[in-house]
Amino acid sequence: MVTASSGDPETVLADLQLSRSLTIQWTVVGTMGFGVAVAAFGALYQLFTGEAVTFQFASADVAWWVGPMNVLAVAALATVILVPHEWLHGLAIRYYGGEPRYGVGLAHFILPYAYATTDHRFTRDQFLVVLLVPLIGITAVGVPLLIVFEWSWLVIPLAANAGGAVGDLWMSMTLLGYPSHVDVEDHRTGIRILGRETDRPRELSMTAVVWDALVGAAVTSVGILVALSFGGLFLLDALGVGSFTVGTPGTITYVVGYVNTPEEISVSVGLGVPALGGLIGLAYSFVRSYRRLGRSAGAGDA
């Protein structure tokens, strides 16, 4: 087969599959993305309405059922957004001449996902539109509804849509490392990029740098939150640790506050956790980039 723009033989430049390692990374980054998006949309809601977002969907009169019912409501709102998300992918596929197919799966028994795919071949820029339409479209429609009608519950599906778009953003960043004339074939668990042999991206791509920073930040932030939420209270109390605060409450330096009094035992976290995660993520990215450049130079000398 020969490309339309050149006499060079067409080459498969990359066949990007949802590997186990990438699945774990998407899960961690998506989890952090959901939390950051909840905070961002919640702050936007409070800025325009003057009211704080609360996720209280069940009446307090139902006693101990309040907690489970609220959790179920949040889970339902986070899941239902998958329908318009994938429908918008399919709408863009159809716009460019493809016939969308829909389905669901479980990647490596870790990450549940829904998908819209097709046998149609796209240009790079066409496929970027297919990837980004749900994130941009749902956000553009949902934010005005959130503010105008004061539907605070919309924060959950909007945040789930943003966090769930992590795979779309990763593929978009990867595609931007290739020239605009390359073609893209979509399949259920990844994409295939085709072009000329000379179209291969540089050894050190901006996608790799940005993604490493996001993974490092997500792993650090989620790890700190999980450790503090599930182990902090019991461990600190067992060790007899007294109340303490790390950072200044109400500022980006606030990491954690621990209260241990006869009346209360609690742990709270602040903006310092994602800020610390971001710094560690950047450091991790620089180390990974340095090692990649070292391997590339070593291969060249050989």
From TrEMBL:
Reply yes or no: does the keyword Transmembrane apply: yes
The alphabetical list of record keywords is:
Membrane, Transmembrane, Transmembrane helix
Entry keyword Cell membrane? no
Q: Name one Pfam family in it.
A: DUF3267
Q: Which domain of life is it from?
A: Archaea
**Which residues belong to the signal peptide in this entry?**
none
For this protein, the record's InterPro entries field holds: DUF3267
The residues that cross the membrane are 26-48, 63-84, 127-147, 209-236, 265-287
What protein am I looking at? DUF3267 domain-containing protein
Query: What organism does the record attribute this protein to?
Result: Halobaculum magnesiiphilum
